[in-house]
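Let's study a protein:

===
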Amino acid sequence: MNRYFKKLSLPYLVFLIIFAILPMLFMTVLSFMDNEGTDFTDAVFTVSNFEQFAYKSTLVAFGNSLLYSFVTTLICAVLGYLVAYKIWRSHFKNKFLITTLLVLPMWSNILLRVNALEGILEPHNILTSIFSKMGWNITFPMIAGTPFAVILGLCATYLPLMILTIYSALEKVEKQYEEASLDLGLTPLVTFWKVILPLSSKGIVTGAIMVFLPCMSGFAIPEILGQGNVVLIGNVINDAFKNMNYNVGSLLAIVILIFILGAILIVNKVDKDGEGVI
């Protein structure tokens, strides 16, 4: 039986080698080369690409990425836990339907959702058009192009991931632990802090990493909602590849990959049983 399952995994292994491992190795090689675009005729080995980390623009982009990712993860953790806890405590017969409705927007293209959000954050948007037809002359402040708009877009995009992972962890909490705590005289609030929260912490850690990593590496949301005023490291990588500076772009992408691999190791250490995984 094990040999049969190993054969079934061969297509995935081939896919992983072709579309993940080989590109990663190719980018690693490019990080230590100096060449023009895709012309490798005069390519030479160099470490000068690492000078990119000394540029203020790169350091600012890294700092912005860490800051915006941390703030977004923190907001999503608080809001996500409140929503997941409310669903877990609810008496809905079909909680799967509720969680499906939460993740439903993620089935649409992320660019469509972000562009739609940008239109709402503009001073003249669909709401002002509706109000004007009703005879109300209402204008909204310019929110697009501000740090708030970027954080709002990141939270709106990745909050469902946090909710699902925390809810999955809460569903695995045994009710008798809570009942035993209450029987021992603890108040519901103390029971939550001493029993429920620690037992669901694996879902928080998993959700935090699932939110932090795409915030750290993404470029579409800050580019659209930030309108060039907010630059993250993903935007720097995107600009490098647009300008055919594949060496610097590959080097920065490898750094992001190291972050991702480190996060995966953390998840494996914290959540060995996969309790926080959907």
Observations:
- Residues 37 and 246 are 6 Å apart (CA to CA).
- Strands lie at 33-36, 39-45.
- The chain is about 70% helix and 5% strand.
